[in-house]
Amino acid sequence: MIPGPSSSSSALPPPSPLVASSSPSSSQQPWYASIRSHLSHTSPATHWTPASERSLLEPYSYLCSRPGKSIRSKLIDAFNIWLRVPEHRLQKVRKVVEMLHNASLLMDDVEDNSDLRRGAPVAHKVYGTPQVLNTSNYVYFLVFREIEAMGHERAEHEGQGSLSSASQKATQSERLLVEEMINLHRGQGLDLLWRDTLQCPTEEEYVEMVRNKTGGLLRIAGGLMTIWRGESEDGAAGQRSTSTTSTPNLAPLLDLIGLLFQIRDDYMNLDSDTYAHNKGFAEDLTEGKFSFPMIHGIRWSESNTNGGSGNQGVDGSSSSSSPASTSPARAAFPTAVASSSSSMPAARPVQPPIVAPAPSFHLRNRQLLSILSSRPTDEHLKRYAISYLRDVSRSFAYCRAVMRHIDAAIWKELEEVERAFGMQSEGNEQLRKILLALREGWWVEGEEDAGDEEVRGRGSSKS
């Protein structure tokens, strides 16, 4: 549903008539003759029409007309098995999250200079970059108006005092949005900085970037649901569900899902025909993006050109103390993921951005880095880079091994959350189905039984 103009404009006084005339007469004054009175008795919203709203939102509507897989809405429904947010509130949460997601996609496509989104030309190729940027920012602010409206809404079945409670929750929700939108833009900003200055981040820095950029929207969904869950269907706060203070901390699970989702997206971008159809063949290479496979491929070359003694595996083992070696993604988990024992905060505290220093690369490492810096559009050059990642650096095998570790951490965290909610016997089957679906495209049956040996040396065996 596309957001429309505010209904509050109906309470404003009727606009003063403005009559344009090139030849004023004694009976007909020019529009500017009464401009002071007009501006004093009307607001900008007075003359904002539904037609103007539709025109402004047209790039947004264009993107929404080709829906994606709605993974975030499905996750919201799955988490609601635990949180049990009243349906009229849950609909608002779904709407807000989808608005934020689609608005961010409009912005992402501009910043990445993309050609396709969901198999169709990107919005800024159709409507132009200036209009799309304005529309994207406009939708961000419409989200805050939706949250504000939640604080003033009171359904017919709600009892006394519910309006005051809703207003407090709306204030909490706005605070959550501000903090996580800051995190989201910091993550996106680092991603763009690394790309445009050709700075290859470490895997740990990549994890923190993803935690901000991808995990932020999931934490918004989980945070909003946690805030609004304390309201019962009959309006008496807390009768149907426990208060938010006793809600298990969902942030670690959401962060892990976001990390798996992003690494999977990076992997599939270079190794999926479906992604090639929807977004273009190996678009991340054309964008110049330091995706997870590229980070491993570049830094694998760096460590292996110094006598081949700088290899590390996903379990953190190393045959050298070379400073050029990249620490494994798994090593970041203890600091990137918190315990499930406490309630979910309104928002993860905003941390100062981490700026990666420009690394020194060995001469032989220039192949992938040079290809990435050229923003290649030639299919043969892209296929060469992909074959290098698959057969030389074994980066695809490494990605799969890392994703298996994250997948295992997700299932372990899921069991902890289920125990906290008292669902050991039945479990959250809806969420389990989503997690199994996230294995599509990269999970190789039996490969997990091989352990980490195939990637321990970062390229010592087949991919």
From TrEMBL:
Low complexity bias (residue ranges): 1-11, 18-27, 317-333
Gene3D superfamilies: Farnesyl Diphosphate Synthase
Alphabetically ordered keywords of this record: Magnesium, Metal-binding, Transferase
Family affiliation: Belongs to the FPP/GGPP synthase family.
Annotated source species: Jaminaea rosea
Cofactor field: Mg(2+)
A GO BP annotation: isoprenoid biosynthetic process
Region (Disordered): 1-27, 301-333
GO MF annotation list: metal ion binding; prenyltransferase activity
InterPro entries hit by this protein: Isoprenoid_synthase_dom_sf, Polyprenyl_synt, Polyprenyl_synt_CS
Record-given protein name: (2E,6E)-farnesyl diphosphate synthase
